[in-house]
Design brief:
Helix content is 47%, strand content 16%. With 272 residues, the protein is α/β, with parallel strands linked by helices. The protein has a single domain (3-240), classed as NAD(P)-binding Rossmann-like Domain (Rossmann fold), CATH 3.40.50. α1 (17-28) links the parallel β1 (8-11) and β2 (32-37). α2 (57-71) runs parallel beside α4 (106-122). The protein starts with 7 loop residues before the first strand and ends in a 7-residue tail after the last helix. The mean pLDDT is 94. Keywords: Oxidoreductase. This is Probable oxidoreductase protein. Belongs to the short-chain dehydrogenases/reductases (SDR) family. It comes from Rhizobium etli (strain ATCC 51251 / DSM 11541 / JCM 21823 / NBRC 15573 / CFN 42).
Length: 272
């Protein structure tokens, strides 16, 4: 198959982790793939890397324009770029929380706004937004990160209804805890308080433990390919056993029981 006949995909945050695994899986599935990173990264087999900071409007527009200039079209976008934030909600300044939203939510919107004119013109396209199980449940000491994923859920579902008439679908992929570098793209609260220190440290250690035993990035990548190639895509795709369990838990169990289970999993006292 020549480049001219291959579907074109753009994956943000593709230098490592889930983004890299996703880009590689899409190459294997037959896509012509462009990946992005904030810093220069060498091209990988079947994959062209571009510099793009999703928090910068001009950078996003330039990256999308480059893809379209080289290929004349854009069939699939995977919004994977994002950053984490660990710490008590009270421990983050509003400026730090705004930065998180600027990348994890408004970064997705910037990319969507840049690619939608192209997709509307060609009357086809698919946008896959990387959510999380933390878009479904609370996350102590990850309150602002979970908030960005909850916001992404609402944005994506609403946008999907708006663009269906143009032959475009917006899809959410919801990974569970995934084995990626714990420190990668992670920031810590900028106003730490002694009152939260011990619980914060305990929660961080627990998160490290979960990451070590989490799903491989390829589990998420395979689900992205499934969501990308489905003729009639679902709105949400759970990536991995944990994600499926959390989605069922949130959907079917009473709120009080969910609250109790979440406290148990996070090793908080049963009553507080």
């Amino acid at each position: 198959m020549t480049d001219k006949n291959r579907s074109v995909a753009l994956v943000t945050g593709a230098s490592s982790g889930i983004g890299l695994a996703t880009a590689q899986a899409l190459v294997k599935a037959g896509y012509r793939v462009f990946g992005t990173s904030r810093k220069p990264v060498a091209n990988r087999p079947g994959m062209t890397m571009l510099i793009c900071d999703v928090a910068d409007e001009a950078s996003v527009q330039e990256a999308v324009a480059e893809v379209v200039q080289q290929t004349g079209r854009l069939d699939l976008v995977v919004n994977n770029a994002g950053i984490g934030l660990i710490g008590g909600a009270e421990e983050s300044s509003i400026a730090q929380a705004q930065r998180l939203f600027d990348v994890n939510v408004f970064g997705v919107a910037r990319v969507a706004n840049a690619v939608l004119p192209v997709m509307r013109k060609q009357k086809s396209g698919r946008i896959i937004n990387m959510s999380s199980i933390l878009g479904l449940i609370p996350a102590p000491y990850n309150a602002f990160y979970a908030s960005t994923k909850h916001a992404l859920e609402g944005y994506s579902e609403s946008l999907d209804h708006e663009v269906r008439n143009f032959g475009i679908r917006v899809v959410l992929v919801q990974p569970g805890v995934t084995r990626t570098s714990f420190e990668e793209n992670l920031t810590r609260a900028d106003q730490p308080l002694p009152d939260y220190a011990s619980e914060r440290a305990r929660s961080e250690a627990l998160m490290r433990k979960w990451v070590e035993t989490g799903d491989a990035p390829e589990v998420v990548a395979d689900m992205v390919v499934k969501a990308a190639t489905a003729k009639k895509p679902k709105l949400r795709y759970s990536a991995g056993k944990q994600s499926r369990q959390v989605r069922s838990l949130r959907r079917y169990l009473p709120e009080r029981l969910v609250d109790s289970l979440l406290r148990k999993v996070n090793e908080f006292p049963a009553t507080a």
